[in-house]
Amino acid sequence: MACIFNSEWFIRKYVPNCSALLRSENRSIRDNPGNLISSVVEPRNSAQADSPGGIDENVLFKDRDGKTALEKEIEYFGARMSEYPDVNVIYRGKPLMLIFLGAAQGPNPADNPLWFKIRKFLKNHPAIERKYTFRMVAGYLDSQLGLWLTQGPPSGPVEIDSKYGFWSWVDRLNTSCTAPLCPYYPSYNAVRINGVSRVENFTASIATAGQNGWGCPNENTQPYCPDASLRFDENHATLRSTRSWTTRFSSLLSF
Predict the structure, then answer these.
(1) How far apart are CA 214 and CA 93, in angstroms?
(2) How far is CA 18 from the centre of its chain?
(3) What does the alpha-carbon distance between residue 50 and residue 1 come to, in Å, rounded to a whole number?
(4) Are residues 205 and 252 in the same domain?
(5) Among 169, 176, 232, 236, which lies 20 to 30 A Cα-Cα from 58?
(6) 120: left (phi over 0), alpha (psi -120 to 50) or beta
(7) First to last CA, the chain
(8) H helices within 98-213, ranges in order?
(9) DSSP 174
(10) CA within 13 Å, CB half, 225
């Protein structure tokens, strides 16, 4: 985020809603991953895949020093990864960096959406691409039909078209919902590794709000919206119940 990494001049010019308090609080959040990693007693039992943010267009605007906020974020997290190499996630031979894109993503590259701009930026900076494996994460791919490989109501986990390749950070599972975008199934994307097709990313979420939030008709009220998704076990949302349905639905995947 430019609010965190760029200069005061840049903020005044491009990020007027970045107050001094917001900047300070977000810089504290930025510093916490490094503090957490350094405090791990047995780092080999942990893993990190650092996540630069790419949610705003201004992450690709140049600051007075000639660098973009995206470059500065990559440098910052890259330094943490170099300092604690034992806890890096190594994917496709390089440390893994996930670029956070938020929720809805425009599917048409002709519209020059941010995800497309970032990919062009990385391609034009081969020195950065040589150091890390980058993947982009977006949310609620369960209802973004324009990103799916196959259109139409799903009957199982939804494959994301390989030309996008987004990794999901949150998806719903609600097979009984009858709202316009239902039923909901979590998404996945596939890649070919050594000639073999494999699922590259699949996200299980134990509690996910509907299109209009949690409560209907008003936010944060009961009852839950009909398209909200919660995995219950003895009336509590749990990881155990999530694991059980993940196992059950794994047979519906194409691999």
Answers:
(1) 41
(2) 23
(3) 14
(4) yes
(5) 169
(6) alpha
(7) 37
(8) 114-123, 126-129
(9) B
(10) 20
Sign of CA dihedral 25, 31, 33, 39: negative
In a domain, 152, yes or no: no
Does this model's pTM top 0.70? My answer is yes
* Same-domain check for residues 68 and 117: yes
Same domain, 178 and 83: no
Give ∠ CA 190-167-121 in degrees, rounded to 5. 105
Do residues 132 and 185 share a domain?
no
Q: Is residue 160 part of a domain?
A: no
Domain assignment of residue 192, given as a range: 170-255
Which amino acid would we find at residue 53?
Answer: G
H helix intervals, 8-62: 8-14, 20-39
Number of domains, the chain: 2
Residue 33's CB is within 10 A of a number of other CB atoms, namely 15
* Residue 220 confidence (pLDDT) above 80: no
Burial 164-178 (b: 16+ CB within 10 A, else e): bbbbbbbbbbbeebe
Q: Check whether residue 205 and residue 119 sit in a common domain.
A: no
What kind and span of H or E run contains 79? helix 69-83
> Which pairing describes strands 187-193 and 158-159: parallel, antiparallel, or unpaired?
parallel
Six token digits for residue 162: 């390989």
Q: How long, in residues, is the chain?
A: 255
Q: Are residues 112 and 176 in the same domain?
A: no
What are the distances in angstroms from CA 138 to CA 92, 101, 113, 134, 185?
21, 5, 13, 13, 15
User: What is d(CA 255, CA 242) in angstroms, rounded to the nearest whole number?
Assistant: 20
Which residue reads 């977006």 in tokens? 138
Determine contact, residues 137/170, Cβ cutoff 8 Å.
no
